[in-house]
Amino acid sequence: MKKKKGSSLIFVVVTFAVIATFGFSILSLTLVSYKKRFVETTEKRNQYFSESGLDIAYGIIGNIVDEGIKEGNTAVDVYMNTLNGEDGILQQEKEKLKNGEIPAYPRPNNNTKSLYIEDDGVTVNEGYVKEQQNITFKQAYMDYVENNIKDNWNSEDNNLTRTIPMKDEDYSSTNIVNKPSVKIYNKDDENRPVEVEFKDINNYRNTNKRQSVLALYLKSNFTDQNVKKIINVGYDILTPDYNAIYYTSTNNFKLPIISVWNNKAICIDGDLKIGGTFNVTGDIYVKGTDTDDGGININNSNSVVTLTGNASTSQNFKISKPNNTVTVNGSGNVYASNVEIAEGADSSNLTVQNSVYTNNDLALNATTSHIDIANFYGINDISKFQSIIQTKVSSCIRVNSEDLGSGSSIKISNDAILMGTAYIKISDDSTLTETTHINTDDNSKSFYQTGESVAVKGNYRAYTEGLTSEEAARQDQYYGGDKNKPKQSLKEDNVVFDYLDPLRLVTRFRDTDNTDLNWQDKSDYFSIYVDEHKNDTNNELNLGDGITLPMAADLQPGERADKNIIHTGAIIANGNVYNGNYYGDNDGKVADKQNSFASMVYEMGDVKDLANVYAQGKVKKAVYSSDPEVENQVDFGEISNTPGDEVTKNSNNDIIYLNNDNSKDCVIVGKDATNIPSGTQIKLDDNGVGRGIIITKGNVYLCGSINFTGVIIAAGNVEVKDSSRKEFVNNNSYIQKLIAYNYEQYFKDVFTGTPETTQNIETNVQINTDNNVKGDLVRKNFIIMRNWKIEK
What we know:
The chain crosses the membrane at residues 9-34. This protein is an alpha/beta fold.
């Protein structure tokens, strides 16, 4: 039984072995037959394609695809260039996000976010960039392929077909007579024009992928052995994806922030002489020359000046001509020695929406004119001086307008500090005015100090007459509240009147030392005189008609209406007089205002040791000065790249003008400029628009209509030469980038000031590509044969 089972197993194994061997043999023969037939078919196809010109047509199509890929790659390169650089999309989007502005490429669901930048405001959104690369590449590729076929494959039958251009040199001389004609046609309806257009196909050839496809159907008519034949073939031209590898790179430059250009539209050592329509957005710094008209001077009539930013000068902020309107907007302040509407500048208006700081006076000397400011800080502290000859320490409001209260006015709305009193000029026989014109000889007696922190022309008569009331005795009154310093009586029997040409004025006490009346005594004298004479029918004093000060309302018992005003001398407002109220507790507030003044005027906006700087009362920074105690902000010796007669413009049309010759002036020439003075012309575009940095040792003249973004830095003057509109804008971010981008070439060692801070500037935010779509990989993968057929 066991032997039978063994024999059966052997029989089965042998049988299966024979069957398997036979099967493998049949399979091998079938495979060989298939390969043979495939080769024969391929050889036959190649032979027909060669004879019919379809192989040449395939090559032509392949060349078009290759060139289309190049066009796509070029388009991506152009797109990438728009992303990079100082004015590139990436940097601009970052700046807008940083400044809280709406980006140029907002997200559909959140217009405060950029498509190009991640939520952190810094990182580039690589996914979006890749998406845009792909879109850009594909569109350029498809446009090229379509247009090349439409433009170069001729049609003679109203676009029913298009002939593929094949050159004679593609054939041997014996075969030229048999040169085939290969055309594309509309497969669905040969009576309709052929379509040359990429179309989107979902799930192309079961790939689960959306593909843009240009379907071409070729028909070749040729002659083989005197037999006319026709072969058709279909090709799908696919659209490759853009798969370049790229990386972002950023170069950071640590830029020293120097006061000569930081936040400034204009920074000069000389005077600023302006007129016409003159608008500035940004700070102005004008050191100014030591003359009556030095500093910032509106010296043309019928001007409209609008400043949005701080205006600082160690000299005067002055309206010199009539019919001028000057406005300082927003948070901008005015810092000056004097702020004045001058005599003769009638029908002028000065409005400051924030604060005016002066080291001397706020003065109104014209008729039908108005000064309207929110806060006034006259911060030169006379309380530290006892001599009547200290004319340089006067900070007050003085008015010489003949029509105060009827045509002219001064209004201070919110806050005021008046740390000085006015002076009367006594050495000149001409018309007597209240004045604080600085006397260069502090030991002369050519100025008489009054006791008024608000002084109006004509009120000097208070010091020409004696006092008789018991109030003038000043019983139980002390200087500074110090009982060791009692005040003397001001009655006429205890004072002396001296003739100070052309007036007889109270000057000293009748004591053994002939003690001079100081400013506190004269403040009391004026206040008491007003009280004695305010009900006189012939009282000719002006007690504040036309002057509005920030007086307090809803007073509590014991409070003074002038509690919102710090003043050392007497003030007048609304028919009342208020004696000085300054006391030691005010020192902190006054010191803060003095430090602000010192920062903006003496330190060009920097902040260091300001209390000491203010006490010295001297400008410590300048564009350029030969004074060894002044810190120069520009080293003109380092300027050599652009001589004074050359204006440089970079690829972004930024103006870079550097001049180290003080004998060479420059002229910014705007639209419709006439009467242009001599000097190097810095020409703006046809609309008078330009931007850049101008640094010169000479003067700058402004001609024509001008719209300039950047900064003007000059050791000389800046002067408007006509009434055309002038616009100057400080864009600090732009200036920082322009300096950083051009630092090595133009600005290295030019700015010598000690930086308060530094700022990291991205000088080259860009995306770099390592590769792009390669043409040699495309023909095999992106020109797909559908089928071919011999019609006859």
